Amino acid sequence: MSESNSAPQVAQSRFQRWAQSLSDHLDQWPAAARRALLAGTTVFCGLLGLLIITVPFEFYAQCIFAIGCFSAALVLRRIPGRLTILIMIGLSLTASLRYMYWRLTETLGFDDWVDMAFGYGLVLAEIYALVVLVFGYLQTAWPLRRQPVLLKGPPSEWPVVDVFIPSYNETLDIVKLTIFAAQAIDWPQDKLRVHVLDDGRREDFREFCEQINVNYITRDNNRHAKAGNLNEALQVTSGEFVAFFDADHVPTRSFLQVSIGWFLKDPKLAMLQTPHFFFSPDPFEKNLDTFRSVPNEGELFYGLVQDGNDLWNATFFCGSCAVIRRKPLMEVGGVAVETVTEDAHTALKLNRAGYNTAYLAIPQAAGLATESLSRHISQRIRWARGMAQIFRTDNPLFGKGLNLGQRLCYLNAMLHFFYGLPRLVFLTAPLAFLFFDAQIFHASGLMITAYALPHIFHASLTNSSIQGQYRHSFWNEVYETVLAWYIMAPVLVALVNPKFGGFNVTDKGGIIDEKYFDWKLARPYIVLLTLNMAGMAYGIARLAMGEEDATTTLLINLLWTLYNVIITSAAVAVASETRQVRAEPRVAATLPVRLTRADGSVIDGVTQDFSQKGMGLRLPQGVSVPQGEQVQISLLRSQHLSLFPAVIVFSRGELLGVQFDALTLRQQSDLVRLTFSRADTWASTWGSGQVDTPLVALREVSRIGFRGIHELFKASLMEVRSLLRRRRVAPSKLENIQDK
Amino acid sequence: MSRTDDISNLFSRFGATSDSYHEFDSQFEYPNTPPAQVKASVTEEVPAPVLAALPPVAPVCVVLAKTEEQAPLMSTADVATPLRNLLAEVALARQAETQALQAQLRAPQCKARVVALVSAKGGVGKTTLAAGLASSMRLEGGKTLAIDLDPQNALHHHLGVESGVTGMGSTDWGSHLQQGYNDVQVLPYGLLNDEQRCTLEREMSQDRHWLARQLERMELGVHDLVIIDTPSGCSAYLQQALDVADQVLVVTAADAASFIALEHTDRLLGAEVARSYVVNQFEPDREFSRDMLEVLKRRLGAQLLGVVVQDHGFGEALAYGRNPLAVPARSAGGEGVLLLGEHLKAALQSPGVAEKSAP
């Protein structure tokens, strides 16, 4: 690992130069001596660590130790660089492992069965959380930050690439965009073969593909859903590489020239994944109004986790926006069909077969996020179930071909989806004491504070430092809380019987006609919220009545409950579906544009946003065009200027909304080339979000929590009112959770 | 903003340049669906009413021209009264002064869009193409001028203008414009004897902006379009044309001689001059011609603006004094010219060009 791989913007400090000279010096030692030094240091550190973790402190000593460590972490946090991150991880591990050691050795002397049931439940949940925390550190401590390798040879030497666009039930309007963009990828025309794999066998698709000269592939069954569809197409195509795009993932024109280079450099490379980027808000972002201001659920995975996996050569295939070399893929039997997350499983098989996988953190395609909460949830259920299936049928800890790093990365990806039950345990644990007076923690309140707080604070602070750009503090809890209830059962079922259940697709691009509250989906969080609020009220009452010996414990549990109330109320807010006005989400982008009015005069402006069917424009100050006028929109590309007839559908001051008239196929293709397939649109918003500060994030989550309670209150009122009028509010149901 | 911008934006994110990037302008065979064709024809009709409103621009030129021309008139007149002489002197002095002032203050500015057709090799159909473009292209709300910088003095024939005696040599171009096909205003090269031609060429070689000044004096508007035909190879005329051109269109044919001449063209134009190419006299039914076109396509890449097929209709039209682009008789070659015109227009109107020429 060269220094240039780590953050290049940090100038080398004196300390770094010193470390460099030291390592240069060590490099000159004989190999045996170096190995001995390494082994000695490891053993020494291990013993020292063991000592630090296990040495018992009494209350004040523990407090002083914890404050010292935490102050050090707070100072370190301000120093940028990978080394400080590693030290912070060390401190966090110290605090957490000390806590766990103390927890397991000192706090488990339960008095009765109730205590024991609750107590052990909580401990197990905590152990799970700790394991995920440790693996998470391992995964994300040192992201590889791979840079693209550019193609050197002339285009005549470039390989043939098949582009697969599998579709099942997406509308042609959405898939069209992807097909046009795939055609427009900058690659020699005779070496770029676009195939639409239509499992829906729809006539309009066949006709469209025929018109624009794209290969259309169907099969006579739908076995193994998407994986089967891809495998079928692998049989009838022959390119050296295959690029995969989901029907709603629109590639940029530079996709192949950016991603193929690594394959030519590394002959063992079998798969290269690029991020899934979404140009429409997911239900969280939409309902909480946090689009582009708070990193979304996927951003952590593609911003950090995959990059971290890449260091261990354990990048997963995510089903879309990726390139796979055909030969190794055929060697492992094509796309895996044993589980419902065929993509990750395929990558696992490729890694097992000794091939490399890579991740390139440059968004070179963008798609539609799932547009309603119920669909979002069913998608996550599928992922969770698939991961549990792989865990059962092809556990990465066992079997041939993987190194330790790969095993742990894959394992963590699977363990991550088991959060359902532990999350629910954390959300209800303090209630056991508040309601039933269960002593789940056999220790004094002060001792708990002295051990547990450093564990929690260090973990939050360290994660905030590592992930700040890609996930804000406390949002992880919100995301998990929303999904916990729903993925718990499928994961457990899949663990018991991996064969149970079918494949469900997430279909996208719909309109939510009116704002509504998704009662059915929100039910679990409403229950949790009510329980926690009741617990809090009860606890406050107990505090007020003055239970002498339990004040600290009560306070601790009340604080914990308050935190749970904030998180669950934010989860409730997610269930309040806001209106989605446009059927096609618009992409914000500023491009120069020329508008030719009906009388022939010409106005130069810039776009505000664009979609397949229209554009938002900003004209120069003081210029406006009335609504309803027929105009021509021209966008520039090299010397070819493309004209698009359009009509003004909205006009206020210098802001215009235009809608394109019926465009010819060529015009549609040109429009896609000039807008969606631009190389830099997605990359420019990537990772440029606001960096996390835990306190600001807490305030934001609390604000959203308040809104959630407010929405819930309003919705309840409406419900009561409509109940009185005997009218039914249309509820939604969780769609195709387990269809087929 | 050029097309490569998004690539260089992207590549600069990981510290690379876009040099190694290849752009492919793959053309796909799409059938034209009817609705948009209807639309296209509607928009083509739009300019028509605008044309009627054009004349107001022209008279201004004429008025200005008169004051200048009166000076020599008066001096040659028999009534050589002292007052008139004095007045003429004053007028001349003022003229010289303003000219000097103009030259001092700024490089001449021509608001109109200028397209220069050039080629290193003769016989590639430059003049024919210039005439075709001039008679078919028009920017919304403007007029089109065809200026012949080629001593062969042939352009006006192609545009249906009978007399080509006066042109280049006259001091006032505005008043010597003649009406050609489709209302194009033609300025022939004119009939010059050797001495006159040498004087003209000397003037050009001394004043880099000679043509620019001439055009400026015509007070053209932003929507006006000037098509310039130049002689083949290196000449003072070419330099003048390059000085004013917004678009330099290199005319080449799909044959070996033209391909060889491309090298020479590059030297002729220099590295800075942005240019686009048109392949003329392409014979789609000959395999060799098709192969040559492919070779040219690879060599020129995105610079290739259009292809015009070999069309004998042009020669015949010239012979019979017909407009080859007149609607009923329009041929494949004519279509090619119209398409080329569209592309040129697009390139001229592109925001990038506007930005470049604005400051």
TrEMBL record, chain A:
<feature type="transmembrane region" description="Helical">
    <location>
        <begin position="83"/>
        <end position="102"/>
    </location>
</feature>
<keyword id="KW-1003">Cell membrane</keyword>
<keyword id="KW-0973">c-di-GMP</keyword>
<dbReference type="InterPro" id="IPR050321">
    <property type="entry name" value="Glycosyltr_2/OpgH_subfam"/>
</dbReference>
<dbReference type="Pfam" id="PF07238">
    <property type="entry name" value="PilZ"/>
</dbReference>
<comment type="pathway">
    <text>Glycan metabolism; bacterial cellulose biosynthesis.</text>
</comment>
<dbReference type="InterPro" id="IPR005150">
    <property type="entry name" value="Cellulose_synth"/>
</dbReference>
<dbReference type="Pfam" id="PF03552">
    <property type="entry name" value="Cellulose_synt"/>
</dbReference>
<dbReference type="GO" id="GO:0035438">
    <property type="term" value="F:cyclic-di-GMP binding"/>
</dbReference>
<dbReference type="Pfam" id="PF00535">
    <property type="entry name" value="Glycos_transf_2"/>
</dbReference>
<dbReference type="InterPro" id="IPR001173">
    <property type="entry name" value="Glyco_trans_2-like"/>
</dbReference>
<protein>
    <recommendedName>
        <fullName>Cellulose synthase catalytic subunit [UDP-forming]</fullName>
        <ecNumber>2.4.1.12</ecNumber>
    </recommendedName>
</protein>
<feature type="transmembrane region" description="Helical">
    <location>
        <begin position="117"/>
        <end position="138"/>
    </location>
</feature>
<comment type="similarity">
    <text>Belongs to the glycosyltransferase 2 family.</text>
</comment>
<feature type="domain" description="PilZ">
    <location>
        <begin position="580"/>
        <end position="676"/>
    </location>
</feature>
<comment type="function">
    <text>Catalytic subunit of cellulose synthase. It polymerizes uridine 5'-diphosphate glucose to cellulose.</text>
</comment>
<dbReference type="GO" id="GO:0030244">
    <property type="term" value="P:cellulose biosynthetic process"/>
</dbReference>
<dbReference type="InterPro" id="IPR029044">
    <property type="entry name" value="Nucleotide-diphossugar_trans"/>
</dbReference>
<feature type="transmembrane region" description="Helical">
    <location>
        <begin position="59"/>
        <end position="76"/>
    </location>
</feature>
<keyword id="KW-0135">Cellulose biosynthesis</keyword>
<dbReference type="GO" id="GO:0005886">
    <property type="term" value="C:plasma membrane"/>
</dbReference>
<feature type="transmembrane region" description="Helical">
    <location>
        <begin position="553"/>
        <end position="576"/>
    </location>
</feature>
From TrEMBL, chain B:
<protein>
    <submittedName>
        <fullName>Cellulose synthase operon protein YhjQ</fullName>
    </submittedName>
</protein>
<dbReference type="GO" id="GO:0005524">
    <property type="term" value="F:ATP binding"/>
</dbReference>
<dbReference type="GO" id="GO:0051782">
    <property type="term" value="P:negative regulation of cell division"/>
</dbReference>
<dbReference type="GO" id="GO:0016887">
    <property type="term" value="F:ATP hydrolysis activity"/>
</dbReference>
<dbReference type="GO" id="GO:0005829">
    <property type="term" value="C:cytosol"/>
</dbReference>
<dbReference type="GO" id="GO:0009898">
    <property type="term" value="C:cytoplasmic side of plasma membrane"/>
</dbReference>
<keyword id="KW-0547">Nucleotide-binding</keyword>
<dbReference type="Pfam" id="PF06564">
    <property type="entry name" value="CBP_BcsQ"/>
</dbReference>
<dbReference type="InterPro" id="IPR027417">
    <property type="entry name" value="P-loop_NTPase"/>
</dbReference>
<keyword id="KW-0067">ATP-binding</keyword>
<dbReference type="InterPro" id="IPR017746">
    <property type="entry name" value="Cellulose_synthase_operon_BcsQ"/>
</dbReference>
<dbReference type="InterPro" id="IPR050625">
    <property type="entry name" value="ParA/MinD_ATPase"/>
</dbReference>
